[in-house]
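Task: sequence design from structure.
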């Protein structure tokens, strides 16, 4: 349906890792996240997951808007996919001294220490993915796409998680003056 198509477009599934030249301009991750929360809300509701947000709408960084959208979309999709009915996914955007921090927290199964490095690998699929959540598209590539897009923007991506305690995926976008170089 239309919703699945717009979600798939947001996640950029099936399209090559588009290595078009970066189009860098001031972007507000809080605005990007707000639009994506609206896009994902029906899927979240259908899964019985609360999708919450705490967004600094004014925080701005220089980035490629499409790559940023793809990163946040993939983190949201991932959070929803691994969160059981009755759970919660919260996206937050906060201005920091040297950039903007985007975090997506879920109440999913959490990640064991030995899997924390693997989850950003292209072919890794966490064993706990609930196969019934077919309303939320994903190929297992989401985090790999998010990681490569973040690295292209000179940012960093990491996860804080404990088994049984959910996960927080963090992406930090540096202000351009703090960035060494972006290829």
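Answer:
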């Amino acid at each position: 349906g239309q919703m699945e198509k717009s979600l798939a477009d947001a996640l950029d599934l099936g399209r090559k890792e588009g290595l078009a030249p970066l189009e860098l301009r001031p972007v507000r991750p809080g605005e990007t996240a707000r639009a994506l929360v609206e896009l994902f809300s029906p899927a979240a509701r259908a899964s019985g997951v609360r999708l919450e947000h705490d967004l600094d709408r004014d925080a701005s960084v220089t980035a490629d808007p499409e790559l940023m959208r793809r990163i946040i979309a993939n983190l949201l999709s991932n959070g929803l996919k691994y969160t059981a009915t009755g759970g919660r996914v919260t996206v937050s955007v906060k201005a920091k001294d040297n950039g903007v921090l985007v975090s997506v927290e879920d109440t999913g199964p959490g990640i064991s220490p030995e899997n924390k490095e693997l989850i950003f690998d292209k072919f890794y699929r966490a064993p706990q993915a609930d196969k019934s959540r077919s309303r939320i598209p994903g190929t297992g590539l989401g985090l790999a796409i998010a990681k490569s897009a973040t690295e292209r923007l000179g940012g960093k991506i990491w996860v804080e998680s404990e088994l049984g305690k959910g996960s927080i995926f963090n992406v930090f976008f540096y202000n351009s003056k703090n960035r060494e170089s972006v290829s």
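DSSP finds four helices and seven strands in the chain.
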